[in-house]
Amino acid sequence: MRPVSDFHVRRSRRQSPPRMPLVPAPYREHLPHPQLRRVVACYWSHRATGRRVRVLPDACIDLLFHRPLAAPPNTPWHAELIGTMTSASLTAGLPVEYLGVRFHPGEAARCLALAAHEHTDARRPLADLWAPSARDLLTRDLARARTLRDLLTALDTALLTRLTDAPAPDHRVRRVLATLRTASSRIDELARRESLGERQLLRLFERHVGASPSLIARVFRLERALALTATTPRWSELAVTAGYADQPHLIREFSALTGLTPTQLLHERATSDPFNPGPAAAPTLRP
Question: How much is the pTM?
């Protein structure tokens, strides 16, 4: 038997270079197929370096695919469903490449054939939710991908197939969500506009969105407030414009939903939040 020389070992190692990550390091959002854009808000990608990051609630359900940066070629992506969040959470802080599908609020339940409230504030393996044939086809296509475009095409293919058999959207939920996103509104009035009682609207939101209309209204109000920080010089003015009763109300809501005071959150998002597209220097707002 011919001995294996040290030269052959070294050459073998050179012929098996480490796998290069497929997703870019900066957080990026990508458009889905045009037929999916009423259902999928975006695909997103990010290569995490190991720092823990605060993820804010956004009323959305995500499909999350991830694998270690050091994994060998053709390593399968671990697939999970991330349910609607009612408060902020911190990432695990591991060196990982991420690929995500962010559904518009209220759309994931019908596309994925699930009851949204059963997954609120939870992470579920995709293996528990999809039939093995559909799940295995998607994870195999992702593992075979050689470029980011290959990954996105695999997502398009899988979701277009599921959308074909999905039930029609509930336009009552869509209309209420659209109103809540832009302005503070009384939930009972929104229910009446749709010829619903408040309890009926609550059940629809639990099934389709995964949280109550009042909680979603708070999340959207937080988003409006954060968008205003770049142009509004005073917290007191920002609070009223965004729909809070006053500045103390704003502070309480920021703390409840994000775990930080408004000033702390702005500083964190400006200095260490890769999921905040186009971060700028933290603005200094006066009382």
Answer: 0.89
